[in-house]
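Apologies for my clumsy wording, but can you show me some protein sequence, whichever is easiest, together with the matching structure tokens, please?
=====
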Amino acid sequence: MPETPHPIDVHVGRRLRLRRSLMGLSQEKLAELVGVTFQQIQKYERGTNRIGSSRLYRLAQVLQVPVSYFFEGLEAPTAGTPGLAESPASFEHESAPLGPRPLVDRRETLELVRAFNRIRNPVVRRRIYELTKALAALECEDTS
């Protein structure tokens, strides 16, 4: 019976892929910078291989984020879910999903951010930002 990845490993992998993509790095380039194979980066991003603490620290350095970045968006443990006081073995068989994929993990969001980051003119960038906020406000008014 194949072992399914732990939901936290999947979450950390998604955050890794998101940041790598936002920085415009290929899996090969990131692997070179960290000192692993690109296949290892693929496994990290899918959550099939866990990222050790020293490797996670190095990835955070290369990707210019705090280590906590990889855990952003995880829900705090609640009663009945594994917490820090429980033994690591209790995590091994947990397979509860973390919920729907956030918008930030979608391809169109990544493409939008990449395109926005390529705009050099600060005035144009600011206007696009203001337009986006105005459209979102209109959307909120329509649903109220």
